[in-house]
Amino acid sequence: MTKAIWHYELSEAYSNTFFPKQILKSKKELLKILIESLRLVTLNTPSNCRLSEATVVLKCLGKSRRFFYFSKNKYYSIALPPDLHIKQKEDKELTFYVNGEEIDNKMFSALSTFIDSPSFPCSFEDFILERDEEYYFIIDKLRPLIEPILYSELGYVRYDDDLGHAEPTFHPRYHLDTNLAKSATFKKGLKNSLAREDFIDILDNEKERWFLLKNRKK
Questions:
Q1: pTM above 0.85, yes or no
Q2: CA atoms within 13 A on the CB side of 180
Q3: Taking 60 as the threshold, does the pLDDT of residue 132 lie above it?
Q4: Which residues contact 51 (CB under 8 A, 6 or more apart)?
Q5: Which residue of 27, 48, 175, 177 has the fewest CB atoms within a 10 Å radius of its CB?
Q6: Could you tell me if 34 and 21 are in contact, meaning their C-beta atoms sit under 8 angstroms apart?
Q7: 8 with 67: CB under 8 angstroms?
Q8: Considering only CA atoms, which of 87, 57, 82 is closest in space to residue 71?
Q9: How far is CA 31 from CA 34, 36, 146, 152, in A?
């Protein structure tokens, strides 16, 4: 799929899945969001709503495929694993494939269960042995899916309009946070609020690039 964009307008209850009260701190939490996002778009027809009304946006552009999540004061984005392929059905619902295998709702549930299990992320074999025979068949089909989803770079980027903690030099009200772990994340301050369209464009390498204007002189 070369170029496409889909909007999803969600209920408040479903939005809580993608915007939990606590700050996202681990890849495990992002993986849960990724799985629920994939499940969402396979079970729902894309909305005709405008970008300003969308809660979740899936954008495909060449090799770049990203989910975007929007609330009033926070946006963030994660990338889809490169081995995960998308097809659109005649009824406009989307399906996802890994190595030619379609991922259905039972497989999404099994993958979510694995992420929540004590076996995660190391021992997929132990996880399989703990399940009954019927469940084993479903999980066994997940083998080609585990590595591309669990060990891919998710490319997490977040935009905040954070008036409550704003400090002009070290915590600008408008800023981008890159990376997830505390030891790796860093902020890039913005002079003004960021429109949804601009947040998407920043992560689209086929659009004109944005520049940091405040550089130290050599």
A1: yes
A2: 16
A3: no
A4: 7, 57, 196, 197
A5: 48
A6: no
A7: no
A8: 57
A9: 5, 9, 11, 10
